[in-house]
Amino acid sequence: MATRSCLCLFVCLLTAVGARAADTPSAALLVLDKSDNSLVIVDAARLQPVARVPAGEDPHEVVVSDDGRLAYISNYGAYGRPSPLHTISVVDLVTQKALPPIDLGALTAPHGLAVAWGRIYFTAEGSKSVGSYDPASRRIDWVLRTGQDGTHMIELSADRSRIFTTNVGSASVSIIERAPVAADSHVSNVGVGRGAEGFDISPDGRELWVANAQDQTVSIVDVAAKKVASTIAVAAVRTNRLKFTRDGKLVFLSDPAGTDVVIVDAATRKEVKKIAVGRGGGGILMTPDGLRAFVALGAENAVAVIDLRTLAVSGRIATGRNPDGLAWAVRK
């Protein structure tokens, strides 16, 4: 009985927002619980949460500073509120405390995030824009309008010369040739499929794969030509997120309306397997060593762990309510 009481006390302490159970490991999995407005810090080796920190209203995506000490979280708030939100929350991963948020002013409904040159790149869906924030100067130093509806997710090319976004409402991808001055940058909008949202760039930088949630397809964009090279059908109800494995051989797609992760061979464009992970598939994260994939399960308040050598579920992490955004933090 005493053992059970201690266990219950530990669970209660950990699930309370802001609770700290242990130090943040040098390598940690970060999980955003959207319905709990919190960031869960997970010891990825033991598959155990060690802390929970407030993440601001309606947190959706999370990225980590280059030194692994700070997490930046987009506070989306595009629906169900009188006006969209306009902040990026900041969490100190060492002290496990929330820091003052970044106010984006007129740039509303931030969602997608990326880190480059020490700056935080973000989409501002409510403003049809992308921008960057410089933590050193504490100011927004670059803003560019895509002119597209629902500018949602964002990635940068390996050499940082290009910015890519998916635009859900316009069924398009924006390929931005970045210049130091935003006005000198060039935007090419490429039509893809309806509900274009989750996407990833192949490790060789040649292709951009886009999950079209409403069409049950994936558009494969030739980056150099800036056009769709092919479109493939996927056996999923509503593809939401898409990620290449680190070696570029496989592509994983999650399905929030189903229970499987769909795996496609990148070379043959054919489905090779479905993995039953659970309901509400969302964010996908590949570990740097290429051995595991994590998949957020919003409907099951958990994260599935997939062994990439066997392509089978090897574990499960209990989180809070409605996990989605994932990130990997390595402290330097």
Task: Please specify the SSE layout and strand pairing.
Layout (H helix, E strand, L loop, with lengths): L1 H14 L11 E7 L4 E6 L4 E7 L4 E6 L5 E6 L11 E6 L4 E7 L6 E7 L2 E6 L4 E6 L4 E7 L5 E6 L5 E6 L4 E6 L8 E6 L4 E6 L5 E6 L4 E6 L4 E7 L8 E3 L5 E4 L6 E6 L5 E6 L4 E6 L5 E6 L4 E6 L4 E7 L4 E8 L2
Antiparallel strand pairs: 1-2, 1-28, 2-3, 4-5, 5-6, 6-7, 8-9, 9-10, 10-11, 12-13, 13-14, 14-15, 16-17, 17-18, 18-19, 20-21, 21-22, 22-23, 24-25, 25-26, 26-27
Features:
Methylamine Dehydrogenase, Chain H, mainly beta, 4-stranded antiparallel β-sheet, 332 residues, globular, disordered N terminus
Question: How would you concisely characterize the structure shown here?
Answer:
By secondary structure, the chain is mainly beta. Helix content is 4%, strand content 52%.
Q: What does the overall shape look like? A: globular
Taking all residues together, what is the mean pLDDT?
93
The percent of residues in helical segments reads: under 10%
CATH architecture classification name:
7 Propeller
CATH class division = Mainly Beta
How many individual β-strands?
A: 28
Unreliable runs: 1-13
Q: Write the CATH homologous superfamily.
A: YVTN repeat-like/Quinoprotein amine dehydrogenase
Rg, Å, rounded: 19 Å
Largest sheet: 4 strands, antiparallel
Strand order of the largest sheet: 3-2-1-28
> Alpha-carbon distance between the termini?
42 Å
Task: Assign the CATH topology.
Answer: Methylamine Dehydrogenase, Chain H
Structural class by helix and strand composition: mainly beta
The topology string of helices and strands comes to HEEEEEEEEEEEEEEEEEEEEEEEEEEEE
Count of the domains: 1
Kindly estimate the percentage of residues that lie in beta strands according to DSSP: over 45%
Q: How many distinct helices?
A: 1
